[in-house]
Fold this sequence. Notes:
Low-confidence stretches: none
Number of strands: 2
Distance between the termini: 79 Å
Amino acid sequence: MQxxxxxxxxxxxxxxxxxxLLGGLxxxxxxxxxxxxVQGEKFxxxxxxxxxxxxMVTLAMRDNLESLWMLADKLxxxxxxxxxxxASSREAALVxxxxxxxxxxxxxxxxxxxxxxxxxxxxxxxxxxxxxxxxVYAAADTVITAHGNKTRFTLVDGLDAQHVFNAARNLxxxxxxxxxxxxxxxSSLLLSNHIDDxxxxxxxxxxMGKIIGRLDLVASYATERYRxxxxxxxxxLVAGPFLQFLPVR
Length: 249
């Protein structure tokens, strides 16, 4: 049997250690924690009448409304007294809220007010109705109104980028009011975020941030789209003569 010197033993040991470390890393890589997957909608005939930008805005609206339903559920869980003002259960309250928003029905507690006027009313300390429903309904109505009262978009639909941008700022203001304004007894209008020495729950803040971020992206995209259309037209005029095929025979 061949004897090894000290340097050979050291090299062999390093190789074994490297093998162990790589094996451990390989095990970590082969079993990642599940984080879900990108979900797309099923094809529909409506898509024939949608440009890429129409589709993007439609999906952003879908996700914003889903975020608002999630926020309503979170707020109801932390403020069960609110759903008891309008329904027999939390699930029933969520169903009727969603129906009212999607069918553009007025919400009784908001006294016929819509969008930002409804937001202002729902965030008043003296508001006596279901504040969760009032707040989420008004937020959803603000977003939909800013998109020309539509939730799905086709080639014939236009979009005012400034209105969408304004909707994002309105939700920022509403979020700040919700977290800072107090009832007459000093309590919060609604329990939303939670921070103390033992735990932090900022899921409400994160979800609201997603909505605001999507609105800002749609506003920027809408502005850029019209600007790029003009630039693209100009590029076509300038570059057109240089992009002609030349005769080969």
